[in-house]
Design goal:
584 residues; alpha/beta; 28% strand; 26% helix; 6-stranded mixed sheet; TIM Barrel; beta-glucosidase activity; Jelly Rolls; 8-stranded parallel barrel; 2 domains
Length: 584
């Protein structure tokens, strides 16, 4: 069954189709049962989740700060332009503004039944080198309070919460930003004190949440990437034994079970959660094997190794992190996972960029900060830097972000249907204009056809990227901006866009197209309700991507009611900005 739920926030309306097909929440604890995750009644549960990347732990790339990388470097840069006192206030406001009840309510409305919380250990305890007494643990209430609030919001929406230690004491790998690791200090693997603190933290968390059935499980270590046998194996993908990783995960599980025998323990292999050599056999009866999937093909062979492990050791699988791609890739990956009874969790809810449900706006004031931090301009006065950062803090609130309904549509509705929906209500009257970028909601070959629909950055020899303009929508259609007005560009032979229109009254219409072309070429025609119309438009005399010209087709008979019109590129090379319907 599908149910449409609308969430109101100030002047925006967020709506999408909510999938309610599989039991998602019960009062009992989730358990591993053979190859399945089940609820207290033995019903299969498919976790459909979203990760809160960027909340408790910032990674630079999410905010166009990839050159900084780690959170402690970002904080240092904020201190440099705005002062240490402001930087402390900034991070307090960041934790308050980034994730609130409205975020959880919206995720539930879109169809998510679970949330993965990437935790930074420093919100829960002090680093080992700052402990007043060596070997002891100072507990900080901040992290626990934030987690309690999130859990409360999840329970109100009948959602599960997965706790994920994303930044472990000392840092668990050579990918520095994902754990906010300072390479000048001992890593998790180089410090027994860091390992003991990690074990103690998990015991503390398990003790606090032992009787909370809304906690789905404990994802005890995120993406370890370390060469134990070969230090030069920076990613940990070549390790064959992984003995330190296995021992640490066993020690953590033992500590958890001393205070909590209820919750699933989720483990991740080396090599960013994918290298499980040496990890088996498992040491607990209630465990789930997590793997992370990015930028490869969505066919069974891509996950066959994990399916084999699941079959051999009778353990459930969970695709604990995925995303950062196009809508086509999202739909295919989720179908692949769910067809094999595998739950999934996407990365992440919001950042600057289009391939997530919520996009943080890139404003001129914040861009000035980026230009300074990237060495492209002089330092801003302190008051201007503070104003830019205050604006950024306001822009991370859900109601000030850009909601990409095409992303959530691809993740839920399109999994089960090839039907399309109008992107906007296109009511055709006497004179109506539709922006070219507002083609129908739907997948490749349903709402549009593009020869490049996804990124396969981890597949050798494949150079595709999806939307080459990285703007407005996350489909394969190439979109970029022209003075804040978006248009479709890089249209190739055979590509097409579909628009569902609702005609008020039947009649004969003139259809006008705003078009440009770098090479002064291109031909397109219309397909009305699956029937190709005889006339076509040849793009001539229009050279330059932003040198827009108007072309038209006359005497187009449109019946009353819903119609589907496709703009088909017989010869590519042109750009399309808008379509206007004028009743004769």
């Amino acid at each position: 069954m599908h149910q449409q739920i609308i969430v109101h926030s100030k002047n925006i309306i967020i709506s999408l189709i909510l999938l309610l097909s599989v039991p998602a929440y019960s009062q009992g604890f989730l358990k591993a049962n053979g190859r399945l995750i089940v609820d207290s009644k033995g019903n299969k549960v498919i976790l459909r989740g979203m990760g809160l990347g960027g909340w408790m732990l910032q990674e630079g790339y999410m905010f166009r700060l990839a050159n900084m990388g780690q959170q402690y470097k970002i904080k240092s840069c904020i201190e440099e332009v705005a002062g240490p006192e402001y930087a402390s206030k900034f991070y307090e406001s960041w934790l308050t503004n980034h994730t609130r009840k409205i975020d959880v309510d919206s995720m539930a409305a879109w169809g998510f039944n679970s949330i993965r919380l990437p935790m930074h250990y420093q919100l829960f305890t002090l680093p080992v080198d700052l402990e007043p007494v060596a070997g002891q643990n100072t507990w900080l209430e901040k992290g626990f309070t934030l987690t309690d609030s999130l859990l409360k919001w999840c329970k109100a929406n009948k959602m599960y919460l997965i706790l994920d230690l994303h930044a472990a004491p000392g840092g668990q790998g050579n990918d520095l930003p994902i754990s906010d690791r300072d390479p000048s200090k001992p890593s998790l693997w180089e410090s027994k004190a860091n390992q003991q603190k990690m074990i103690a933290l998990w015991k503390k968390l398990a003790q606090r949440y032992a009787n909370e059935p809304a906690i789905a499980g404990y994802d005890i270590i995120n993406e370890p990437n370390w060469g134990f046998e070969k230090p030069e194996d920076k990613r940990g993908t070549e390790e064959t034994k992984n003995e330190p990783l296995r021992q640490l995960m066993m020690d953590i599980t033992k500590a958890i079970r001393e205070v909590d025998k209820n919750h699933i323990v989720i483990i991740e292999g080396n090599g960013f959660g994918n290298n499980y050599r040496g990890i088996f056999p498992l040491w607990d009866q209630n465990m789930v094997l997590s793997f992370h999937k990015y930028g490869n093909f969505n066919n069974p062979s891509a996950i066959q190794n994990f399916l084999n492990l699941s079959q051999q050791y009778q353990v459930p699988l969970w695709m604990g992190e995925s995303g950062e791609n196009s809508n086509t890739w999202f739909t295919e990956a989720i179908r692949l996972a769910e067809s094999n009874n595998i739950g999934w969790c996407w990365w992440q809810l919001k950042k600057i960029g289009i391939n997530n449900p919520l996009e943080i706006k890139l404003t001129p004031s914040y861009q000035k900060l980026l230009d300074y931090w990237n060495g492209k301009s002089s330092k801003l006065p302190k008051n201007q830097a503070i104003a830019a950062l205050d604006e950024f803090l306001d822009n991370i609130k859900l109601e000030n972000t850009i909601y990409h309904k095409d992303v959530t549509d691809a993740m839920f509705r399109q999994i089960n249907t090839q039907a399309t929906l109008p992107f906007n209500r296109n009511i055709i009257g006497g004179n109506t204009t539709i922006n070219a970028i507002d083609y129908d909601l739907g997948g490749q070959r349903s709402a549009y056809f593009d020869k490049d629909t996804a990124s396969y950055q981890y597949t050798p020899g494949v150079k595709t990227i999806g939307n080459r303009g990285h703007a407005y929508r996350n489909d394969g259609v190439d979109i970029q901006a022209d003075d804040n007005n978006y248009y479709v560009f890089s249209i190739e032979d055979g590509e097409w866009l579909q628009y569902t229109i609702n005609v008020n009254s039947k009649g004969t219409y003139t259809v006008r197209f705003i078009v440009s072309s770098d090479a002064g070429k291109g031909t397109f025609s219309l397909i009305l309700n699956n029937n190709r119309l005889p006339d076509s438009v040849a793009v001539t005399g229009s050279r330059g991507a932003k040198n827009w010209s108007t072309f038209e087709l006359k005497n187009i008979k449109l019946p009353k009611g819903n119609n589907k019109i496709r703009v088909y590129a017989d010869e590519g090379g042109f750009n399309l900005k808008a379509i206007t319907f004028i009743k004769n």
